[in-house]
Each structure stands twice: as C-alpha cells, then as structure tokens.
Amino acid sequence: xxxxxxxxxxxxxPPREAFFxxxxxxxxxxxxxxxxAEMLTPYPPGIPAALPGERFTEDVLxxxxxxxxxxxxxxxxxxxxxxxxxxxxx
Length: 90
Hints:
Radius of gyration: 12 Å
Shape: globular
CATH class: Alpha Beta
Strand content: 15-25%
Largest sheet: 2 strands, antiparallel
Keywords: Pyridoxal phosphate
Helix content: 10-25%
Organism: Acrocarpospora macrocephala
InterPro entries: Orn_Lys_Arg_decarboxylase-I, Prn/Lys/Arg_de-COase_C, Prn/Lys/Arg_de-COase_C_sf
Protein name: Orn/Lys/Arg decarboxylase C-terminal domain-containing protein
Order of helices and strands: EHEEHE
Domain Orn/Lys/Arg decarboxylase C-terminal: 12-65
C-alpha cells in the first residue's frame, strides 16, 4: 500500500471563484493537477483535505481514496464513494 506524503495543496484561485466556476466530475485517477471545485472533508478527522481553488495532488487523492476504502466518510463530496471529484472545467 502506498502511503500519502505531502498533503498540502497549492491555492490556485479564490475558493468562491472555484466553487461557482463551470465544473465537471472527473474520475479520481484523472484529477491530479486539476483544480478542486468542491470541499472534501474526510471524517475522521474532520479537517478539510481539499478546498475549492486548490490543485489536487496524487498524494491527496491517494489519501482520500484509501481512507474511504478503510471506512472514512467524506460527507461534503458530490460523489461520496470518491470514485470521481468535482473540478473546475479547463
């Protein structure tokens, strides 16, 4: 199993702008490098892993997917299974 390393994301655009931007659902394995258009707050611990406007990294996506597979829930995700995520349309 791969352990996630750096879980800090770079803020690319203001959260409000990203949340209300034209967006699309993409498979999680195609989301690295894309800008989040939704907040993803895994529970536990209940701390946001991604905010609108931040650029997804492979490490954060692996953390979220492995967490969900282990019983973690992400109640604010549009796709609770996290097989896809909402990103700003390019």
